[in-house]
């Protein structure tokens, strides 16, 4: 085989055979008697194919589908022999997935939103997976069989259930549901809490539990969601019926912080979400959806409040039992760094080269720290919350006194762009400040003599955050 990867694979119903499709350039189909490592058949298809499957009642018969490609295969005497399925006068489709039904019917879903039914290698009829004309052209990306018929999922988060009709040969669309971001929030509650509008997620793969009580979907956003298939007859399509588990971000994480009083961590990311994690249970407890990307966050030491920076404002949220609710916003634009004080009674937010100070309890401004000539990348409160240390891209590390909003000490190295700074605990002598620069050097600076660097550690070229 010349293929550099395997695209898809499948076991036979009896578990004895394994079929796999290779990628470019030869797109080879291989069938193994896997427990003995014996190759039973190989065929080079020479065109991209996305799915292969075994006939559940006849392991010697396989199906394969792809772009304008739908074939059956017979594995006999070490050879794979193919024949095209009859489509009559119908134009060939881009078949994105297929599955077998227990009565040997083959169901194939297409990029035009249609489902095609084949029996004994011949086309029988097609159906639309849309209950309305507006979404009729949405591609169907996956299909799986169940005891009452089959289920298809596709672009726009559409999950459609087809069940057998009275004639036992035909199928009818009985239920349609939507898998969307903001699951658990109705449109009204999403608007009330400032969340983004419910955003549908493309369903790329679906699988059933053996009891058929639950269906699990994988989505294009790297999310996994479960759906209570056993309850489809009583579920309302207008409600959110999908449960997202795992809670993973899909995209870069732009902010992260932990607290003292609770075993939780808060993160925000480019997927426009804020997520509250419990590191004791290793699970995601809450997800908050926004209409714009959050740039930074800070979690209050008690775990009940969280600051989130956005492009237009800084927002203050209360972390409730089942929600994260906004209570105040502040005119701090493009806030990429914010930080509660160690005691939580104050917080600071960065807007470019300036640092804004606020009272946590009254939300009143306490002052503005000015002195940096470049963007401030990191701030760190001192013990006792009497001041802070800041570091920026101007190569400066400054110590500030909170009471007077004045700069107390400074360390400036124009050849370095500082990304992070952290203050160590008090010692018998002086407290150390450690700053990390884009030049790959950690510099230890002692308070009281910040003009000089007491120690340097070279760690290579990297971008550091605290």
Describe the structure.
The chain is mostly beta strands and 466 residues long. Among the domains are: 1-84; 91-111 and 122-245, Methylamine Dehydrogenase, Chain H (7 Propeller), CATH 2.130.10; 371-466, Lipocalin (Beta Barrel), CATH 2.40.128.630. The protein is 1% helix and 51% strand. The strands form ten sheets. It has a four-stranded antiparallel sheet with strand order 1-2-3-4, with no helix packed on it. A four-stranded antiparallel sheet has the order 5-6-7-8, with no helix packed on it. Strand 37 (418-423) and strand 38 (432-437) form a beta hairpin. The longest helix is centred in the middle third of the chain and has 6 residues, at 187-192. The radius of gyration is 29 Å and the shape is elongated. The two termini are 48 Å apart. The relative contact order is 0.05.
Remind me, CATH topology of the domain at 91-111 and 122-245? Methylamine Dehydrogenase, Chain H
* Ends distance: 48 Å
Per CATH, which architecture of the domain at 91-111 and 122-245? Answer: 7 Propeller
Mean pLDDT: 87
- The number of strands is 40
The CATH superfamily label of the domain at 91-111 and 122-245 reads YVTN repeat-like/Quinoprotein amine dehydrogenase
- Based on CA atoms alone, the radius of gyration comes out at 29 Å
Shape: elongated
Fraction of helical residues: under 10%
